[in-house]
Amino acid sequence: MEFRIADSTIRVNVSDRDAALAAIEARLRAGRGFALATLNLDHLVKLREDARFRAAYGVHDFVSADGRPVQWLGRLAGRPVPLVTGSDLVRPLLAVAARANAPVGLVGGREATMVLAAERLRAEIPDLDVRLCLAPSMGFDPEGEEARAVLDRLEGAGVRLALLALGAPRQERLAALGRARWPGMGFVSIGAGLDFVAGAQRRAPVWMRRAALEWLWRLGGQPGRLAGRYLRCALILPGEALRAARLRGEARRP
Fold it and tell me: Could you tell me the residue ranges of all domains in the chain?
């Protein structure tokens, strides 16, 4: 599935979660870096407005569908993709890192949350090696000096897989910088994934996730922050649906 935005084409290329995890494990074992982003409607809104965000997405090796609307659009376009969210990837990715003997670094908004998440994950996943938990300053520039210092600290600690829980677009832009600065390191943007592990946020019950109602759960918990975001997402959905339908039509032409 692909999305054409301004001068860029964003491709959802994770068509099988287990195959993607196997590819990541092979890269970790070989010392080859990568960056993985999880695309959702909020990202599609921001990608229209932010050229640096688009450029960052362009250097990601893996892009998955994070959210039912992106999955539905893929189905409408005749190019179905599985739902592979950043939050759901945390434990499988860390299990892969443990098997590959790849040290891990956690980068997020609150160091105490990451330390607690690291403790819980170490207890769950045998041989997991979390080397570093870092919290950049509020409003840091993901291409600035502090970002470079964060990346250098990860490299200095021997980290080979960095989970970035900074929110879009900062986490993806930091991943793109890291991909260039330390090409042997893997970067995965996971949004609120570590908050869920640590219990700093409660995730929607499984039945709501299965019913595609996780957005409603989140909106109920943070209406002031999310109402405007979800409205902007809803406004672009009809246009994206038309584009997806056109892609399906183009694929059917002889």
Answer: 2-252
